[in-house]
Write a structure and sequence with these properties.
Order of helices and strands: EEEEEEEEEHEHHHHHHHHH
CATH class of the largest domain: Mainly Beta
CATH architecture of the largest domain: Sandwich
GO molecular function: DNA-binding transcription factor activity; sequence-specific DNA binding
Helix content: 40-55%
Oligomer: single chain
Structural class: alpha+beta
Strand content: 15-25%
Number of helices: 10
Number of strands: 10
Organism: Muricoccus roseus
Largest sheet: 6 strands, antiparallel
Protein name: Transcriptional regulator, AraC family
Keywords: DNA-binding, Transcription, Transcription regulation
Number of domains: 3
C-alpha cells in the first residue's frame, strides 16, 4: 500500500502570534533544528520518531510532545505507513502572559513526551478552532484550555479561586455581550471591559456565576435573537448579519446543532413563507 504524500498545513493566529500545524509525513520529516516558541503537539496516526534531550522518542497516537524553546529536535516516521500530527507553536510572550505568577521567568517541561489524553484533545480542539472561521472568544477559550492543561507539565499551579469581586466582573461581561452581540470580542478585550484582572479571572468568574463560558453564552443569546427574527419573517442572510454570525452558513451550522432545523426551515414553519433552504422532496 502506497503511503499518502507528505502534507503540511499551517495557520497563523494574528492576535496571539500562535501557529497551528497539521502535518503528515511518509518517512523523513525534518532535520535537527530549533524553534523560538514552545511546541505542544499530539500524534494522530502512526509512529512519530524524534530526537530530543539527547535521546530518541517514539510518539504513538494520542501521545503528547512537549518541546521547549531552543531545544534541538528532528522528526521522522518510526514505522511503515508514516505518521500524522498536530502542533501548536506558542510564543514566549503569550505563555508568560498566561502564567503571570512568576514574571520574567520561563518554566520548563518536565518531559518531552507524555501520556495526557485531556491535553491531547485540547490541542486538537485548539487547532480546529484556529483552522476554521470561528468567534474570537471560541479561539481564545480553546487556546486557554491548552494553557490550563499545560500547567501540571510546567510545574505551575492553577490560578486563584473566584472571589467576591468576581460577581461584578461576570455581570459586566454578560451585559457587554448582550449589548453588542453582533461584535466579535476577544477574551482580553472582554476582560478589560468587565474590569477583570485578566481573561482567566473572567473565565472563572463567568462560569461560577452562569455555569458556562462567555463564548457559549454569546452563541446562546445570538441564537435566541435569531429565532425571534426568523419567526418574524426575516431571511437567514439578514439574521446572520444582525446577530453576529460570520455568514449564513455559520448561522446554519449553529442553528441546526441547537434546534435540529435549518434557519430557513424554521422560518417557513413559523411564517408559512417558503424559503430556499426548505427541503424539497
Amino acid at each position: 500500500m502506497t503511503a499518502p504524500p507528505d502534507e503540511v498545513r499551517l495557520v497563523h493566529d494574528a492576535p496571539t502570534g500562535i501557529e497551528a500545524i497539521r502535518a503528515r509525513f511518509a518517512a523523513h520529516a525534518y532535520d535537527l533544528h530549533r524553534h523560538d516558541d514552545w511546541l505542544v503537539g499530539v500524534t494522530d496516526r502512526g509512529v512519530q520518531d524524534f530526537l530530543c534531550r539527547g535521546a530518541r522518542r517514539r510518539s504513538t497516537p494520542g501521545r503528547v510532545i512537549l518541546i521547549e524553546p531552543q531545544e534541538a529536535h528532528d522528526g521522522q516516521a518510526g514505522a511503515e505507513g508514516g505518521f500524522a500530527y498536530r502542533m501548536l507553536y506558542l510564543p514566549r510572550p503569550w505563555l508568560r502572559a498566561g502564567m503571570p505568577e512568576a514574571p520574567g521567568t520561563d518554566p520548563g517541561f518536565r518531559a518531552s513526551l507524555c501520556d495526557d489524553a485531556a491535553l491531547g484533545e485540547a490541542i486538537r480542539r485548539a487547532c480546529r478552532a484556529l483552522e476554521a472561521p470561528s468567534e474570537r472568544l471560541l479561539r481564545d477559550a480553546a487556546l486557554d484550555a491548552v494553557l490550563r492543561r499545560l500547567r501540571p507539565h510546567l510545574g505551575r499551579e492553577e490560578g486563584a479561586a473566584p472571589t467576591g469581586r468576581d460577581a461584578g466582573v461576570a455581570r459586566r461581561a454578560r451585559e457587554r455581550l448582550q449589548d453588542a452581540m453582533e461584535s466579535d470580542p476577544g477574551a482580553d478585550d472582554l476582560a478589560r471591559a468587565a474590569g477583570a484582572a485578566d481573561r482567566f479571572q473572567l473565565a472563572r468568574a463567568f462560569r461560577a456565576a452562569y455555569g458556562t463560558s462567555p463564548h457559549a453564552y454569546l452563541v446562546q443569546i445570538r441564537l435566541l435573537r435569531a429565532r425571534r427574527m426568523l419567526a418574524a419573517g426575516a431571511r437567514p442572510a439578514e439574521v446572520a448579519a444582525a446577530c453576529g454570525f460570520s455568514d449564513q452558513s455559520h448561522l446554519g451550522r449553529r442553528f441546526r446543532r441547537a434546534y435540529g432545523l435549518a434557519p430557513g426551515a424554521y422560518r417557513a414553519l413559523r411564517t408559512g413563507v417558503p424559503d430556499g433552504e426548505w427541503p424539497r422532496r
